[in-house]
Amino acid sequence: MTKNSVTKRTTLVREMSAERDFTINEVTTIVNKTLEKLVAHAANDNSAAFVGFVTFKSTGHATRKGHNPQTGEAIIIPARSVP
Which InterPro entries match (predicted)? Predict the structure, then answer.
């Protein structure tokens, strides 16, 4: 992999499994749990970084107007933070 390459999760899991004595399911669990924890920290603290690997940052969405697509009724969509 080059420094700026993009890798799919499945490719990462397959390569990690081939390099170590772990099954694909074990590596998948490790990768998924690691990413879940980083996203959870980003949601709670507004950002989380795995230095040299990835940074997650929460984004805030302001309160806005919307409509119910089934009824056409106008609604207010509350503000929220999205990891």
Answer: Hist_DNA-bd (IPR000119), IHF-like_DNA-bd_dom_sf (IPR010992)
- The CATH number given to whatever domain includes residue 71 is 4.10.520.10
Residue 53 has, within 13 A of its CA and on its CB side, a CA count of 9
How many CB atoms lie under 10 A from the CB of residue 63?
9
Looking at the 3D structure of the chain, how many domains does it have?
1
**E-strand stretches of 1-83:** 47-50, 54-57, 59-61, 64-67, 74-77, 80-82
Q: Is the pLDDT assigned to residue 23 strictly greater than 80?
A: yes
